[in-house]
Write a structure and sequence with these properties.
This protein has helices at 3-15, 26-30, 34-40, 63-75, 81-88, 92-103, and strands at residues 46-47, 53-54. By secondary structure, it is mostly helical.
Length: 105
């Protein structure tokens, strides 16, 4: 491919709109936290599967961090089996709502 065609293709790709990310609602997220609070709202809680693991408190984490972590679990980029199972059942909107909720706490 010529350099000109390659440059033109790159410029065209840069101008294409990116897919919109779901806009999160903290209020909607509040209705979806039941699967989170059983582990993440208990100070000092440790899970025992697959190994003993100190469960982090997610209250106060940034929305971007929560969203990125849940997306990574859903894609299989993070390995905790319980979180992978939970994230697999979440839609992009669910993830955005949970991130908005925890990002405001």
């Amino acid at each position: 491919m010529s350099r000109t065609k390659l440059l033109a293709a790159g410029l065209l790709a840069a101008l294409l709109p990116l897919p919109a990310m779901a806009e999160g609602s903290a209020e909607a997220g509040r209705t979806k936290i039941s699967m989170c609070v059983g582990c993440h709202a208990i100070p000092g809680y440790k899970s025992s599967f697959p190994t003993v693991y100190q469960v982090p408190m997610i209250k106060g984490q940034s929305a971007k961090y929560i969203e990125a972590a849940l997306q990574a679990y859903r894609k299989g980029e993070r390995s905790h089996p319980t979180m992978r199972g939970i994230a697999a059942g979440l839609s992009d909107q669910d993830i955005a709502d949970l991130a908005a909720y925890y990002g405001t706490r």
